[in-house]
């Protein structure tokens, strides 16, 4: 159950998170990747040591979960062209070759793990459809063959 008395503390923690961490990530997609990486794959609980030290583990987890949903929703509201541009920024911040990233995403579909648990089914479907469409474009742009030629 949420403790409404701690709302100002959570709000301050969220503001601090955005100011000091998320604002340093240049792409919306990169923010989504970062927030998803803070979620424990076994429990679904978000963990960030610095934020937990500042605001408490529960408040930190709630702040991170809410931020993940917000970033996710902002990304799916972008047009495909804007998403493509945002991915270009994300790719430019990665050390791996874009073609390798595109091939790996196509093969492993690890982008499924980027969605927040709280996302609605329609949001999930839109996200997956958008990423699949973008991957088709990116495979063409970077000359990456689809691992299953029937698709």
What does this structure look like?
The relative contact order is 0.13. The radius of gyration is 17 Å and the shape is elongated. Helix 3 packs across helix 4 and helix 6 crosses helix 7. The N terminus is likely disordered. The protein is built from seven helices and no strands. It has one domain. The termini are far apart. It has 151 residues and is mostly helical.
Helix proportion range:
55-70%
What is the count of helical runs? Answer: 7
Radius of gyration: 17 Å
Beta percentage is: under 5%
The mean pLDDT is 90
Provide the succession of SSEs.
HHHHHHH
Number of domains: 1
Task: Give me the count of strands.
Answer: 0
Give the termini separation: 45 Å
Residue stretches low in confidence (pLDDT < 50, at least 5 long) are 1-5
Main sheet: strands, sense, barrel: none
Helical/strand content category: mainly alpha
Report the principal-axis shape.
elongated
Comma- or semicolon-separated keywords:
single chain; 151 residues; mainly alpha; 64% helix; disordered N terminus
Q: Helices, strands, pairings?
A:
Blueprint: H1 7-20, H2 28-37, H3 49-55, H4 57-76, H5 80-92, H6 98-108, H7 121-142
Helix pairs in contact: 1-4, 2-4, 3-4, 6-7
In short:
It contains seven helices and no strands.
